[in-house]
Amino acid sequence: MEKSPDAFRTISEVADELDLPQHVLRFWETRFSQIKPMKRGGGRRYYRPNDVDMLRGIKHLLYEEGYTIKGVQKLLRENGVQFAVAIGTGDMSAFEEMSRKNAEAAKAVQDEQSGREAAQRAEEADGNVLVGEAKVKGKKIFGFSKSGPEDAAEAGGDTQLSRENRALLQEALFDLLECKRLLDQAR
């Protein structure tokens, strides 16, 4: 004799219908607080039609979609029990909607991360740009020849820095100290 679609089912009937062992259903009860079959005297479980649909949805997510138990727990927390029931009844539009929302959220996170990376690259590029232009041009740099102060002294050149060159060196030192401070902050 066939049961009415609205009739309660025993754990053995649900296990047969879902093609799962009974111990898996009992285990799922410990992992998913949303699974609450009625229990009669002696601890016998009776599943409502809604419970069976939810179990079918959980089975689909675990076995066919490849979610972990923690992943399904998170989905149930975020989307509610009706999400799993909808999947269990074959209404895949709920799952597709969730997948679409997840894809949009992932794209938004990726776009935000790309934006941050682009801003960081731009900031690094700005940091690589020299502040101001060198005022001394030619073969003498900061009052020295290109080979160094010793050669300038040997050639009879002045080893003292001009006021202008000293200001340039102080500015360069300040920029280097600022770069060091920024690098220390980044660590």
From TrEMBL:
GO function terms (MF aspect): DNA binding; DNA-binding transcription factor activity
Keyword DNA-binding part of the UniProt annotation: yes
Keyword DNA-binding: yes
Keywords for the protein's UniProt record, in alphabetical order: DNA-binding
Domain of life: Bacteria
Pfam families for the chain: MerR_1
CDD domains in the cross-refs: HTH_MlrA-like_sg2
Residue stretches making up the HTH merR-type domain: 10-78
Protein name: MerR family transcriptional regulator
Organism per entry: Oricola cellulosilytica
Lineage: Bacteria, Pseudomonadati, Pseudomonadota, Alphaproteobacteria, Hyphomicrobiales
